[in-house]
Amino acid sequence: MYDIYALARGPLAWGAFIVFFGGIIYRLAAILLEARKKDHVVYAYFSPYYAMRSMLHWIVPFGSRSMRQQPILTTVTFAFHICLIGVPLFLFAHIILFKESFDISWWTLSGMAAQVMTVIVLLSCVYFFVRRIVQPDVRYLSSTADYLILLLVVLPFATGFWAARGWAGFEIATLLHMLSGELLLALIPFTKLSHMFFFPLTRIYAGSEFGAVRNAKDW
Amino acid sequence: MATTEPKANDEPIVLDDAIIEGAEKLSEEDIAQVINDMIRTEGGARFKAYLNTCMSCGYCSGACHYYLSRDKEPRLAPAAKVKQTLGEFVRKKGRVSRETLMRSCEIAFTDCNLCRRCMMYCPFGIDVAFLMLFVRRVCHKLGVVPRYIQDTAHSHSATMNQMWVQEDEWIDTLQWQEDEARDEIPDLRIPLEKEGADVYYSVIGPEPKFRAQLIYQAAVLMHAAGIDWTMTEFPGWDNSDMCMYTGDIEMTARLKKVHFESALRLRSKRIVMGECGHAFRSVYDVGNRFLGWKMPPIEVVHAVAFYDELLAEGRLKIARKFERPVTFHDPCNIVRGQGLHEKARSVVRQSCETFIEMEPNREHNFCCCAGGGVINCGPPYKNKRVKSNRVKAEQLMAAREKGAEVVIAPCHNCHGGLEDIIHHYKIDIEIKFLIDILFECMEK
């Protein structure tokens, strides 16, 4: 048990972070180079002002008509993403690990806040799952990958919550938490979760085309 | 032509014999080869980013008039159209059946107007129109294209205009309109081949063919505003382009080249185009790109912007405002395409007594369901096209209830589409071009 823990805490964590950052760099570089070759318009019409304008409208909750038309989905989506990124980055238990390993630390969430935010992530996933099954258009659009990435997100948060609450078997939960978190990190660049870093690219292009060429709004 | 009527339960069937004939000639190997070649050569960064990034969230569904009008049929959500076409192409590594190819052809050509409304409703700004055009290009390369629009593309290839108009017919039409107009304004001319004019005026093929009065009205407007203008007697007079919509980008480039070059040959200062949406798209941000021009090599002004400019400069004066209450339909290709909505409203407000907004409007207006080459796919698809835009009918009815008696649509395709909708849903509203209003109200 301790051996596996050491493995998850050491080499696997390193591996996950390397694959995560390396994967992002690789995929971004690949797509930007391919755009150089085949999608000249992406560079030719790039406009920082309109790209930012578009990004702002889509990164601010209810900044677009589309988001206003689906208030529940929009509220859940924003709450989900904020908690999804916020909890792992500012969790006290995570910062301790960084402190131990590299002697660096930063601001942390209170334990209560982290737990509430984790519950928000989990409930959001339940909402997304139910929505995928219940709403006909989304059900039609959903593929196995869409369900699997939901599971991929649920695992580290559910096990993390379990461990944090100290429920029975929390040692196992901790281990599962580390492993599933590492799996999630490593898979982000190579699954649909890559929308995390493709979002700015597609928005920059859409914003530039709509703003600089077509003098129109894109929100 | 049409083999069967659509079944009541909305089961997908292929309506167009040219699609069936085209597909029958192909083996699965042929199909796979073309699809894979296309993905390898033209499936670039945008293609990959769009397909990888779609989270199947359904934000786009509510943007699509097909989806909304057909009782939220899941197959008609924009992302679903991608899933059924490119999704299958990629998933099966090109080895799709003829049935899938035929269905993909119908989806890309007749279930999407390439209006780009969904791009505004997608959190990632995924350009479904771009992806549908990719499917259309695959279909074009495989020779599987709806008959009517392919005929139009053939006309473009053979005559450099959309409607098989011969050179003498074109000149005759202009002379005929000039002759008619001279009854009203004795010194009016439609100048042909004049070098160094301020304005090179170009129209789309259907104007000399069906709507010659628009050329008459434009001539009167040019005369009244004292514009130094010209048209060309040679190919290049037609600024339209259905090849852009069949996926024949090589022809698009040729067409736009002829158009630009005839204006440049006459050393005109700029091109002014009649009230057409898709032609503007082809000249302003499609054809020029295929020719390697970041922006058109000569300034291109859409009629709506031109009218606004003439009114602002006082060259065009309104004698008496149009009395009946009007509403305005924002054509996709000049609003999402060049943001002309405020200029259009300025012209409408200056020329009409009462202006009633349609909801939604401006960039968020619903497409007419005729654009993107859909109306050009002809009679086999007319019923579907009308049925698939019930939301437009509701939008028009709401404007009618607020008192609008006339809907102004400065686009030929929109006219065709809206006419069919008005007729089918029995809406008591009349449709006009902006120049119809100006012609009636300006000082001549």
Please report the number of helical segments of chain A: 12
CATH classification, class level of chain A: Mainly Alpha
User: Quaternary arrangement of the chains shown?
Assistant: heterodimer
- If you consult CATH, what is the topology of chain A? Fumarate Reductase Cytochrome B subunit
Helix content of chain A: over 70%
- Uncertain segments of chain A are none
Low confidence ranges of chain B: 1-9
What would CATH call the architecture of the largest domain in chain B? Answer: 3-Layer(aba) Sandwich
CATH structural class of the largest domain in chain B: Alpha Beta
User: What is the 3D form of chain B?
Assistant: globular
As a whole number of angstroms, the C-alpha radius of gyration of chain A is: 20 Å
Structure summary, number of beta strands of chain B: 8
Radius of gyration of chain B: 22 Å
- Strand percentage of chain B: 5-15%
Description of the structure:
The complex is a heterodimer of chains A (219) and B (444). Chain A contains twelve helices and no strands. Chain A is an all-alpha fold and 219 residues long. In chain A, helix 1 (2-9) packs parallel to helix 2, helix 4 crosses helix 12 and helix 10 (144-165) runs antiparallel to helix 11 (170-187). The model of chain A has no long low-confidence stretch (mean pLDDT 96). Chain B folds into three domains: 17-145, Fumarate Reductase Iron-sulfur Protein, Chain B, domain 2, CATH 1.10.1060; 160-313, Rossmann fold (3-Layer(aba) Sandwich); 326-441, 3-Layer(aba) Sandwich (Rossmann fold), CATH 3.40.50. In chain B, helix 14 links the parallel strand 3 and strand 4 (299-302). In chain B, helix 5 (78-91) packs across helix 7. The longest helix of chain B is centred in the middle third of the chain and has 18 residues, at 167-184. Residues 1-9 of chain B have low confidence and may be disordered. At the A-B interface, helix 2, helix 3, helix 5, helix 9 and helix 12 of A face helix 3 and helix 5 of B.
